[in-house]
Amino acid sequence: MSAPVLKTGVAFGDRRFKSFRLRLIISEEGFFIFNFIGSMAEQIRYNRIRFPKGRQKLFLEEIKMRLNCNNRFLAQALGIKIRTLSDWLREKSTINYSSIFNLCRKHKISFPQRAKLLPEFWYVKKASRLGAKIRNRLYGNPGTPEGRKRGGVTTMKQMMANPQLAMRLGFKTKKNIKLPQDKSLLAEFIGIMLGDGSLLGYGVKVTFNRVTDKKYGIFVQGLVRRLFGISSNVIIHKSDKSSDVVVYSKMLADYLVEMGLKRGNKKINNVDIPLWLKHDSKLGLDCIRGLADTDGSFYGYNNIIRGNRYKNFAFCFTNRASRLLASFYNILKKEGFSVSGAKDRVYLYKKKDIARYFEVVGSHNHKHLEKYRKFKRTAV
After folding, report:
1. How far from each other are the two terminal CA atoms of the chain, in whole angstroms?
2. Which residues, including other chains, have CB under 8 Å from residue 156's CB and lie 6 or more apart?
């Protein structure tokens, strides 16, 4: 009678097993026993057995029928806890080799032919792969700029939460800022933040179009350095044409909150120009400049009157925060501009208003200035 064959993770004919003097001893009933001389005999005790899907439960049920016992008695015979046996029956975990081997040898029960003896530490590779997938999902692929950025942000948060650990590792978690002396530029920066800025847990960022607003991004970096005495970085988004001027300073973010800005979604929070800026006409216009340079647009259009074509220039400010839009409208209205509004937009159409805007409010956005200069040269 030929004995059933227990498949293994490594072929038994492999040269690696010759030093262990593998011997196959077959009993009269056709059951087999592996006898390893040396360290293999001790090692195999901790190996596991894998069955084809659904076969492990059937194998254990057959043992129960053969012994005419319940789960509790079978668990005791195997030397395991009832909960472990439950996991085996549900095929939640693989069977321990030594437990089942001794029981089968005692009661002369044969193994299924398709059972597979797993090598030691077979689970390490699978666990490592699973851990890597979870780590990449949480923090991004460390081999990409996005992954390194997310990893850096996560590390920064951890260091801020544990300053003592940060000091031991040589991290600087608190970047001091100088208090701005120029209120006019501070008001403009607050306008920029209300437009395309965001308050983060670890600092601030301002988003801009790196193609059309490249020079304006450089201006924002210089403004941060001039106002607060700290440097900034530019993060490029490869998925589109946008980039971020990022300032890693929690102190700066906290300071801007004290100045009247809010963390979170600006539309949901229905943000507004801080009161201390609205109560000062000069600072209010400075804030308008920052808002218009980020969320505003200047454009030319043709107007036909009595068959004659006239080239005109208009300004449009767009924002979905109703309070902010109303404050923008009221500040310009109070300063004598002929303002019109529609839904989430504020317009200036008259030539004298456009000219006065660039004279009184001004702009630091090269794109806006070039459009206005081109219009003045071509206007009839």
Report:
1. 108
2. 173, 202, 248
Question: How far is it, in rounded angstroms, from Cα 317 to Cα 175?
Answer: 34
**Dist. CA 199–CA 271, nearest whole Å:** 13
Q: What is the pLDDT of residues 288-300, one digit of tens each?
A: 999 999 999 998 8
How far apart, in whole angstroms, are the C-alpha atoms of residue 174 and residue 125?
40
SS3 270: coil
CA proximity to 29, closest of 64, 56, 58, 3:
3
Q: Which helix (H) or strand (E) holds 23?
A: strand 23-26
The DSSP-derived string for 37-104 is -SHHHHHGGG-EEE--TTHHHHHHHHHHHHHT--HHHHHHHHTS-HHHHHHHHTTSSPEEHHHHHHHH
Residues 6+ apart with CB under 8 A from 78: 85, 99, 100, 103
From the number of C-beta atoms within 10 Å of its C-beta (0-12, 13-18, 19+), residue 3 rates as middle
Residues 6 or more apart whose CB falls under 8 angstroms from that of 375 comprise: 298, 300, 311, 313
pLDDT tens-digit readout, 295-328: 999 988 877 777 777 778 899 999 999 999 999 9
Please spell the DSSP secondary structure of 40-52, one letter per residue: HHHHGGG-EEE--
